Every structure is written in structure tokens, then in C-alpha cells.
Amino acid sequence: MNIPEELKYTKDHEWVRVEGDVLTIGITDFAQSELGDIVYVEVDTLDETLGAEEVFGTVEAVKTVSDLFLPVAGEIIEFNEALEEAPEQVNDDPYGQGWMIKLRCEDFSALETLLDAQAYKALIGG
């Protein structure tokens, strides 16, 4: 199971990469493996400001649909449009080409509530 050390994680299996004042967010390798083949990613909250734990979109796999939860509050400033044509990138490269959104974070202290790689490994039994 791939769990990059430099990222932050949520109990809902999203990951967060901090790049200046922008956060890149996607789902973890564990989440994509549990979901199976991803066939569609929907994010209809572009340019909206949402609170932490609010649903920002959905990911659809062959057998299920799962909500995507925002790890911290902020404004969604970009959606990975490549996923519209190739949602399987979430399966193939969840921490790279399979990223989902970019968020302008309002409160960086909220990142302290997220899990580090070791805590996330413990959560998933790794």
C-alpha cells in the first residue's frame, strides 16, 4: 500500500498536499483499491467555498458511488478535468495524475487535525 510520507490524510481516505496557499486533494491508494475500477468522478462545487467535512463531489466505481469529503475549509479553485476523459487515473496514480481538486485554504491550522502517514497506516491496519 502506497502512503507517501509528505502528505496529510483524513479518516475518510482523502489525501492533502500543501503547495503554498493551495492544497491538492485526492483519494488514497487504499480508497481506490477498496472502491475498485473508478468509472466517473464528479465535482460540481468548483468556485464554491465549503466547510471542512462537507461533500465536494462523488466518485463512482463499477459497483458503488462514494461521497468525497473536504478535509479542511476553503474555496475549490480547480478540478482535474483530465478525470472526465480518464477517471481510471485515480486507480493508476492516485497521488499524481489522479488528483481531484485544488483548494485555497482558509485556515492552515486546520491541517494539524489531519493524520500523518504513520497515523493513517495505523487507521487502515498497515
Secondary structure: elements and pairs:
Layout: E1 8-9, E2 14-19, E3 22-27, H1 29-35, E4 38-42, E5 49-50, E6 55-61, E7 65-69, E8 74-79, H2 82-85, H3 89-92, E9 101-105, H4 117-123
Antiparallel strand pairs: 1-2, 2-3, 3-9, 4-6, 5-8, 6-7, 8-9
Task: Describe the protein in words.
There is one protein chain. Helices cover 17% and strands 35% of the residues. By secondary structure, the protein is of the alpha+beta class. It has one domain (8-120): RNA polymerase II/Efflux pump adaptor protein, barrel-sandwich hybrid domain (OB fold (Dihydrolipoamide Acetyltransferase, E2P), Beta Barrel), CATH 2.40.50.100. The strands form 2 sheets. Strands 1-2-3-9-8-5 form a 6-stranded antiparallel sheet. Strands 4-6-7 form a 3-stranded antiparallel sheet. A hairpin with a 3-residue loop joins strand 6 (55-61) and strand 7.
Q: What does this entry show, briefly?
A:
This protein is of the alpha+beta class.
Strand order of the largest sheet: 1-2-3-9-8-5
Q: Overall pLDDT, averaged?
A: 96
- DSSP strand (E) fraction? 25-35%
By secondary-structure content and strand pairing, the structural class works out as alpha+beta
Number of continuous helical runs: 4
**Largest sheet descriptor:** 6 strands, antiparallel
What is the assembly state of the chains in this entry? single chain
Q: Which regions contain 5 or more consecutive residues with pLDDT less than 50?
A: none
User: What's the helical proportion of residues?
Assistant: 10-25%
Level-2 CATH architecture: Beta Barrel
CATH class: Mainly Beta
Overall number of strands: 9
Kindly provide the radius of gyration, computed on alpha-carbon positions and rounded to a whole number of angstroms: 13 Å
How many domains in all? 1
The separation of the N and C termini measures: 8 Å
User: What is the name of the CATH superfamily?
Assistant: RNA polymerase II/Efflux pump adaptor protein, barrel-sandwich hybrid domain
Succession of helices and strands = EEEHEEEEEHHEH
Looking at the structure, the CATH topology is OB fold (Dihydrolipoamide Acetyltransferase, E2P)
Shape assignment: globular
